[in-house]
């Protein structure tokens, strides 16, 4: 059973930064495409970013391009989401998700992250002054 645990959320002022972490365990890390999606109160889930099992391909939703960076550390079975220049509209619960087609595809879809096979419990990010 794959386990996903997110951390790193919190309260930050507009323009600030946070780094989210996603630790994956229970199955070989390189089997998976990893993505992040978010859900704000009263809104639908929104795919934010994804990274392939090799780390060679990443994708971002338009609203975070140039501000967020996804990366993975295979030695730690961890994916990071570095979030800079945060805006109030980034406020949401952020979820890490894993898709089991990591050995099949050399690309990923950030938009599809809410539909990946596994997800964690989420971490709250609040951007407010």
Shape by Cα distribution: globular
Identify low-pLDDT runs.
Answer: none
Total number of strands: 11
First-to-last CA distance = 40 Å
* Biggest pleated-sheet summary: 7 strands, mixed
- Please give the share of residues in helix: under 10%
The overall pLDDT, averaged over residues, is: 96
Roughly what fraction of the amino acids lie in strands? over 45%
Helix-strand pattern, N to C?
Answer: EEEEEEEEEEE
What is the radius of gyration computed over CA atoms, rounded to a whole number of angstroms?
Answer: 13 Å
Helix count?
Answer: 0
| Strand-pairing-aware structural class | mainly beta
Characterization of the model:
This protein has 129 residues and is mainly beta. The protein is 0% helix and 46% strand. The chain contains no helices and eleven strands. A hairpin with a 4-residue loop joins β7 (68-73) and β8. The chain has strands spanning 3-7, 10-12, 18-25, 33-39, 46-51, 58-60, 68-73, 78-83, 92-99, 118-119, 123-127. The strands form two sheets. Strands 2, 4, 5, 6, 9, 10 and 11 form a seven-stranded mixed sheet that branches.
């Amino acid at each position: 059973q794959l386990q996903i645990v997110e951390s790193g959320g919190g309260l930050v002022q507009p323009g600030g930064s946070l780094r989210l972490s996603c630790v994956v365990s229970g199955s070989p890390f390189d089997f998976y495409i990893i993505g992040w999606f978010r859900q704000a109160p009263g809104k639908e889930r929104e795919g934010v970013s994804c990274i392939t099992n090799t780390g060679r391909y990443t994708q971002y939703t338009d609203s975070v391009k140039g501000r967020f960076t996804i990366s993975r550390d295979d030695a730690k079975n961890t994916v990071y989401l570095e979030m800079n220049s945060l805006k109030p509209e980034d406020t949401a619960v952020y979820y890490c998700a894993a898709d089991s087609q990591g050995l099949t595809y050399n690309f990923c879809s950030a938009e599809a992250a809410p539909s990946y096979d596994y997800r964690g419990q989420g971490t709250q990010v609040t951007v407010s002054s």
